[in-house]
Design goal:
The structure holds two protein chains of two kinds.
Chain A lengths: L1 H10 L1 H41 L2 E5 H5 L10 E2 L1 H11 L3 E16 L5 E12 L8 H4 L2 H4 E4 L7 E5 H6 L7 E7 L5 E12 L4 H6 E5 H7 L5 E2 L1 E6 L6 H14 L8 E5 H5 L2 H36 L1 H9 L4 H37 L1 E2 L1 H4 L9 E2 L5 H22 L8 H9 L1
Parallel strand pairs in A: 4-9, 6-8
Antiparallel strand pairs in A: 1-11, 1-12, 2-10, 3-4, 3-7, 3-11, 5-8, 6-9, 7-8, 13-14
Helix pairs in contact in A: 1-2, 1-14, 2-12, 2-14, 2-16, 12-13, 12-16, 13-17, 14-16
Chain B lengths: L1 H17 L6 H12 L3 E11 L4 E11 L3 E8 L7 E5 L2 E6 L4 E4 L16 H5 L4 H4 E11 L2 E10 L8 E7 L5 E7 L5 E13 L2 E11 L7 E10 L10 H4 L2
Classes of the chains: A alpha+beta, B alpha+beta.
C-alpha cells in the first residue's frame, strides 16, 4: 500500500510535487532564517561578553547606575582580595579585572608639542600575566593588523583606523590624557607597538588597549578596576547558571553601601535583555507564521487535489472503501509529502547556512556607525535546533493542510456517488 | 548756652551720618578688588579635597603677576610633585613631569576639575577682578559669622564667563568677601564659597581659608588654606614662560 502511495506521489506532479516543493521552500527559508538569527544572537552575545560585559560582571552598585559614563571614581577597590574570593568560590568561571576609560590621545611632534589629538575608548586588561585569558578573549592575535602584541609595561595597541587617522607609526610615543579616579587630570605616555581591528564598529573607531597595571597607574587606581568579568570555561553563555551565580554572589554581599560589589549577568550588564527577547520573539513569530502560511497553502493545495481527485475518491468510496480509510490514506500521503519536502528543505537550508557560516557576510559598509558590540562579518549558526525548526513545522503543516481539506470526504453521500459518477 | 550749641552740632552730625547713603555695588566691588589684589603675590597653600572615598591634601606654591599671569608648582603628594601650571593671559598650560609633556588646557578640558577638587580650570581662568567682569548692585545687608556684610548681586557684563551671576557677602568694614554663591545663566546654583580666618597681611585683609563646594559633585567639598602669602614681592621673570615649565 505504501509503495502504491509513493509511486502515486512521484508520478502525479500536481498532487505531490507542487506541495513537496512548497514545503521544501518554506522549510529551507525557516531553517536559514533561524540559523541566521541564531548566528546574529551568538555574535552579539560573544562580542559583548568578550569586549564589554563578560558572561557575568562584578562592579560596585554605584558604578552600575552610571555604567554608560564609565565612572571610574565609583570603581571597585581591593580587587586582589575580591578576585581571590571569586576564584575560590566560583571556579567554574575564569575571572579577570578590567578598566574601561575614556580620554584623549595626544600625539606629539618632534619638539614634544601636540601635533594632533583624538578621543579614545580605552581598555585596560591583563595582557602580561602568564595564563591571562584576555588575549584569547579579545582575540588579539587575530585582530592584529600591524606590529606585535605588547610584551612589557608601557606598550599599547590602538585601532588601525585611529592609527591611520592620526598618522601614528609603530614605535611612536603617545600621551593619554584622561582623568584619575579622583577626578584629577591624568597623563601617561605609551609606546604604540601594534594596531588592531576587532571587526566591531565602536572598538575599531578609537580603541586603545593597554595592560591593566599601566592603566591602574595612569588613572591612580591602585588595586582598583572598573569591573571583574567572569567567563564560563567553555566560552558559552549559560543563562541559568549565570543567574544562579549572580544571585548567590549578591546574597553574600547584601548591604546598603553604594560601593558594595554587585554581580550582573551578561543580559543585565549589556542592556541586551530586550534585544535578546525581541530576537526570540521574532524567531517564534517566524516559525508560527511559517506553519500557518504553509497550512493555508497546503490546505488550498489539498482542496484543489480533492477537486481533481473528486472522481477517484468517489470510485474508491463507491467500491466500498471506508471513508476513514480514504481519509487516513490521504493523511499518509501528506506525511510522505511532508517528509520529502521537509527533508529536502532542511538539507538545502542547512547547506546554505553552512556555506555562509564558513565564508561570512561582510556588512561593514552598513555597520560603520553601529554602536552595538557586534562583529561586522555576520555568520549564520548551524545547530541541531536549526535542523528541527523547519522539519517539524514542514511535516505538521502538510498533515494539518491535508487533514482540513480531507474532511470533505466525510461529506460525500454514498447514495449520490453513482449519480455523480454518471455525470 | 555754649554747651547747648555743641549739643545741637553733635546731633546734626549724627543725623547727617545716619542719612549717608550706603556705598553703591560698584563701589563695594572696587574696594574688594583694591583690598584683594596686588601687583604681585607669592603664596604657598594647601588644597584639601574631601572626596567621597578619601581625603587628599595637595600642596602648591604660586607666583602671581598682576591678575593675568600665574605660575603654580605642586609640591605634594608624591604623585603630583613637580606638576606645574602656567597661566598667561587667557592661555593655560600644564606640565607633567612623568610624561615630560606640556599640554595646553583648552575647550572642554577647561571644565575639568583641578586635581579632583571642586575648582575647575575655568575658575582659574576667570579674571579675579570682579569690577571688570560684573555689574554690581547692593541687595541688602546680612550678618556672616557675626560680621555685618553688604549683600551684592553681580551680573556678568562680559560674555563667556563661567558664572552668569554671583551673590557675594562682603564684610562692610574689611572689604573682604565672606561668602559667595555662583549661578549659571539658567539661574541654577553651581558653586558655593565660604571664606574665613580673615587676617591682616601687609595692610590687607586676607581670607586665609576658603571652602569651595561644587553642588554638582558628591563629596565633602574642597578647602583651600593659605599658609604663607606675600604681596608686591619681586618675581623672577623667567617663571612666566613655557620654557620655565620644564626646568
Amino acid at each position: 500500500m505504501i509503495r502504491f502511495l509513493l509511486k502515486g506521489l512521484l508520478r502525479d506532479r500536481s498532487r505531490s510535487m507542487f506541495p513537496a516543493l512548497t514545503v521544501a521552500a518554506g522549510v529551507m527559508l525557516t531553517v536559514f532564517v533561524f540559523a541566521w538569527l541564531r548566528g546574529m544572537e551568538a555574535s552579539l552575545l560573544q562580542s559583548t561578553a568578550h569586549l564589554s560585559s563578560g558572561h557575568v560582571r562584578v562592579t560596585t552598585a554605584a558604578y552600575v547606575a552610571d555604567a554608560d559614563q564609565m565612572p571610574n571614581d565609583l570603581a571597585l577597590l581591593g580587587v586582589d582580595t575580591l578576585l581571590a574570593g571569586l576564584r575560590a568560590r566560583y571556579p567554574g568561571l575564569s575571572w579577570t579585572p578590567r578598566i574601561t576609560f575614556g580620554g584623549l590621545l595626544d600625539v606629539p611632534d618632534a619638539r614634544g608639542e601636540t601635533r594632533t589629538q583624538a578621543p579614545v575608548a580605552g581598555l585596560g586588561v591583563d595582557l602580561l600575566s602568564p595564563g591571562s585569558p584576555e588575549p584569547r578573549m579579545l582575540r588579539l592575535a587575530a585582530a592584529l593588523v600591524r606590529g606585535r602584541l605588547p610584551a612589557r609595561r608601557g606598550e599599547v595597541l590602538i585601532s588601525d583606523e585611529l592609527a591611520a587617522r592620526l598618522s601614528i607609526p609603530l614605535g611612536q610615543t603617545v600621551t593619554l590624557i584622561g582623568s584619575t579616579m579622583n577626578g584629577a587630570m591624568a597623563l601617561a605616555n605609551f609606546e604604540v607597538v601594534g594596531t588592531v581591528r576587532f571587526g566591531v564598529g565602536p572598538m575599531d573607531h578609537s580603541a586603545l588597549v593597554a595592560d591593566l597595571a599601566d592603566v591602574q597607574s595612569a588613572l591612580d587606581m591602585a588595586n582598583g578596576a572598573a569591573s571583574i568579568l567572569g567567563f564560563f570555561r567553555d566560552d558559552v553563555y549559560h543563562e541559568r547558571e549565570a543567574d544562579s551565580v549572580a544571585a548567590r554572589f549578591d546574597a553574600a554581599h547584601r548591604s546598603t553601601d553604594k560601593y558594595r560589589p554587585v554581580m550582573e549577568t551578561l543580559r543585565e550588564a549589556s542592556g541586551l535583555a530586550d534585544l535578546l527577547d525581541y530576537l526570540t520573539l521574532v524567531l517564534n513569530l517566524a516559525i508560527g507564521f511559517f506553519v500557518l502560511a504553509m497550512s493555508i497553502v497546503l490546505w488550498n493545495a489539498g482542496l484543489m487535489g480533492s477537486l481533481r481527485r473528486y472522481g477517484e475518491i468517489g470510485v474508491r468510496l463507491a467500491v466500498g472503501e471506508d471513508q476513514g480509510h480514504v481519509y487516513r490514506a490521504m493523511l499518509l500521503e501528506a506525511v510522505a509529502i511532508g517528509l520529502v519536502g521537509s527533508l529536502v528543505g532542511t538539507g538545502l537550508g542547512l547547506a546554505a547556512s553552512y556555506v555562509l557560516e564558513v565564508h561570512g557576510l561582510n556588512v561593514s559598509a552598513i555597520m560603520k556607525d553601529n554602536a552595538m558590540m557586534m562583529e561586522d562579518v555576520l555568520r549564520p549558526r548551524v545547530t541541531p535546533g536549526a535542523a528541527l525548526v523547519g522539519f517539524v513545522p514542514g511535516l505538521l503543516s502538510t498533515v494539518i493542510g491535508a487533514g482540513i481539506s480531507g474532511l470533505g470526504i466525510y461529506k460525500r453521500q454514498t447514495s449520490q456517488l453513482f449519480k455523480e459518477l454518471e455525470a | 548756652m555754649r554747651r547747648a550749641w555743641w549739643l545741637v552740632l553733635a546731633l546734626r552730625a549724627a543725623a547727617a551720618a545716619a542719612q549717608t547713603p550706603p556705598p553703591s555695588g560698584d563701589e563695594i566691588v572696587r574696594r574688594v578688588d583694591a583690598n584683594m589684589f596686588a601687583e604681585s603675590r607669592i603664596m604657598t597653600s594647601q588644597m584639601i579635597v574631601h572626596g567621597e572615598r578619601e581625603t587628599r591634601t595637595i600642596e602648591s606654591k604660586t607666583w602671581q603677576r598682576g591678575t593675568p599671569d600665574a605660575y603654580t608648582e605642586y609640591l605634594a603628594p608624591a604623585r603630583e610633585r613637580g606638576t606645574k601650571m602656567l597661566k598667561l593671559g587667557d592661555e593655560l598650560w600644564t606640565y607633567d613631569p612623568g610624561t615630560d609633556r606640556t599640554i595646553m588646557i583648552s575647550g572642554s578640558m577647561l571644565r575639568q576639575s583641578v586635581m579632583g577638587s571642586d575648582l575647575s580650570y575655568e575658575d582659574m581662568m576667570e579674571d579675579p577682578r570682579l569690577e571688570r567682569s560684573y555689574a554690581a548692585a547692593v541687595a541688602g545687608t546680612e550678618d556672616v559669622h557675626g560680621r555685618r556684610c553688604w549683600v551684592v548681586q553681580l551680573t556678568a557684563k562680559v560674555e563667556g564667563l563661567a558664572y552668569e551671576t554671583r551673590r557675594v557677602w562682603v564684610d562692610a568694614e574689611r572689604w573682604v568677601p565672606l561668602r559667595e554663591d555662583l549661578y549659571a545663566r539658567s539661574g541654577r546654583l553651581l558653586k558655593t564659597i565660604r571664606l574665613g580666618d580673615v587676617r591682616q597681611v601687609e595692610g590687607r585683609w586676607v581670607p586665609m581659608h576658603a571652602a569651595y563646594r561644587d553642588v554638582m559633585k558628591t563629596g565633602g567639598g574642597t578647602e583651600f588654606v593659605i599658609e604663607t602669602i606675600a604681596f608686591d614681592a619681586p618675581l623672577p621673570a623667567y617663571l612666566f614662560s613655557k620654557a620655565a615649565l620644564r626646568r
